[in-house]
Amino acid sequence: MASTVTAARQVAGFWLADGAANLRNATPYTVRTETGGERLSIDIVPDGPPASIPPLEGPVSPESGTPATSGKVFFIGSDLQPHWCTGTVVHSKFRNVVATAGHCVLDVEAPMGPLFKWVFVPGYSDGTTPFGLYVGKQAYTHYDFDDLRDYDRDYAFVNVYNGVVSALPDVLTDLGRLGDSVGGQGIAINQPLAPTVDVLGYPAGPHPDGSLPYTGETLERSTGSTFAAKVTPLRMDRSVGVDSPFTGEGSLGSSWLTQYSGDSRTGYLNGITISVSDTDGDSRYDTGVSPYFDGELYGVYKKAAAYWTGSIA
Length: 313
Description:
This protein is mostly beta strands and 313 residues long. The protein has a single domain, classed as Thrombin, subunit H (Beta Barrel), CATH 2.40.10.10. Strands 4-5-6-9-8-7 form a 6-stranded antiparallel beta barrel. Strands 3-12-18-17-13-14 form a 6-stranded mixed beta sheet, covered by helices on one side.
């Protein structure tokens, strides 16, 4: 991504200029938002022993009272326009890792390559950046998603530089490490399908019937049961579904949290929305779709968790 401090400063300037106009004018990402879905009555067998990373408690978003670990990832799409997905801070050694959908990092509409000018805004609400802006430096994805477009591997872990704000034109002020500012969710690997998960994201698009229940301006939360799913036409063998009314546009990258505590606003990331589906044919989305969190995902996370970034201010 922005592999040098100079490049990162330019990216931050692009999004923060003119009162953060590009952030405010961005539209929800519309790539791979919908898939065909079928609910299955089978279990998903883990590929190894269970593992977990504990959460790191942090503050809540001052405007919405929701966890500041959730936010929007912004980038330039292949249409050269600014777009956004949902992202989530996860606990890591250097407190600088954001989890999101793989196709909110890699451009699947073109030869695989990173989406441009990638940044994360935790606690985003109604056009504000309450905890600053964090520029992506390095993204880790699975080889099979990059090379084979295997959507069982449609996830990414992005290392971001320290956060910045711009009180004066062309002057960036350092806000420190992301996890120190907002905390981080835990991660649960190779677990049985959870009875319920809490899905947190920024849905914004319409249902197939044209209704538009969400604006994408504030973080939304839904709670639903999980199940094994079969999806088409995406190449997936071990997809997981969750009962959720979220629409696809904007909610791509939403976190699925098990053991979510309303007091600490923390839980364990155990899914990431990569698409949504209408499984009962009533022209309203009822299911979010995620890859199963297995040992392969854990390996990608551990690579990202060991990568240091630093300051650009």
